[in-house]
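2024-03-11 09:14:02 INFO worker-7 job=invfold-0412 stage=load source=structure_tokens
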């Protein structure tokens, strides 16, 4: 097995989030990957439900301080970090007072979205990659899990046009049972245009329903992991019809995580100069 550097991005991670399929995957897959000898970094949103004092989160001053422009407004990027001692694993949090102070989770309690969902989505995707770039830590592969990380492919492409830092970085999306109601709204197209979206970007992200958003992310990814037996069947079919490299779900967690790491190897290919 090649080693390599894997960036994990998830909208939920235990114990910072409540127990769910996504949070369990976000907690145990990176830990298993690290046990196999790979370098990892792990990112998630700093929703207001994440208890800073309980989990002893603190700001990473050397990574914070950047401002990202979203919808023609400067938004401060704050990076915090917490640890999972039993896994010897650190988790970085993307934070901003305007976007995350009032957001308890990716969706409201009834599974719908609020009026800031589009900007929060853009801020998290770009903020994650900018923080990784500031870390000067180039991943061979990004595994992103959950619709809240679905703008990662767009920003990876956009950043690579300006700077070759992520050149060669591959992307794998993990499909979970995390559907939201309605659509993102908020004029996502106009806000993506301000971030130099191409005509192809705008065409792909034109449908801002859950299905549309995830199909766009799949299209820009090299691999797809079916991370839940309840993953949306339309998305599973789309991934296979578009001939993406697909890893099907299996119930045995240890075996599944071992297969995922072999899947990562198949996507990354040969790694030189380790």
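2024-03-11 09:14:09 INFO worker-7 stage=emit residues=274
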């Amino acid at each position: 097995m090649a080693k390599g550097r894997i960036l994990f991005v998830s909208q939920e991670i235990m114990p910072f989030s409540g127990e769910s399929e996504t949070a369990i995957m976000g907690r145990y897959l990176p830990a298993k990957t690290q046990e196999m000898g790979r370098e990892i970094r792990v990112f998630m949103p700093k929703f207001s439900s994440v208890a800073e004092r309980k989990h002893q989160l603190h700001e990473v001053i050397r990574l914070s301080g950047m401002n990202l422009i979203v919808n023609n407004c400067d938004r401060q990027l704050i990076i915090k970090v917490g640890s999972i001692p039993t896994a010897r694993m650190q988790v970085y949090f993307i934070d901003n007072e305007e976007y995350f102070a009032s957001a308890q989770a990716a969706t409201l309690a009834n599974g719908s979205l609020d009026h800031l969902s589009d900007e929060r989505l853009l801020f998290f995707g770009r903020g994650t990659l900018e923080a990784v770039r500031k870390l000067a830590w180039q991943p061979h592969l990004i595994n992103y899990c959950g619709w809240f990380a679905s703008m990662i492919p767009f920003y990876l492409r956009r950043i690579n046009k300006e700077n070759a830092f992520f050149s060669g970085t591959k992307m794998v999306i993990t499909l979970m049972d995390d559907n939201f109601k309605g659509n993102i709204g908020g004029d996502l197209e106009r806000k993506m245009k301000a971030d130099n979206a191409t005509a192809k970007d705008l065409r792909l992200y034109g449908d801002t329903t859950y299905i549309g958003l995830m199909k766009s992310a799949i299209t820009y990814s090299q691999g797809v992991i079916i991370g839940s037996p309840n993953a949306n069947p339309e998305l599973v079919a789309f991934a296979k019809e578009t001939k993406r490299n697909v890893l099907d779900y299996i119930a045995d967690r240890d075996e599944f995580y071992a297969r995922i790491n072999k899947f990562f190897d198949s996507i990354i290919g040969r790694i030189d100069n380790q």
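2024-03-11 09:14:09 INFO worker-7 stage=report msg="Residues 28 and 257 are 8 Å apart (CA to CA)."
2024-03-11 09:14:10 INFO worker-7 job finished
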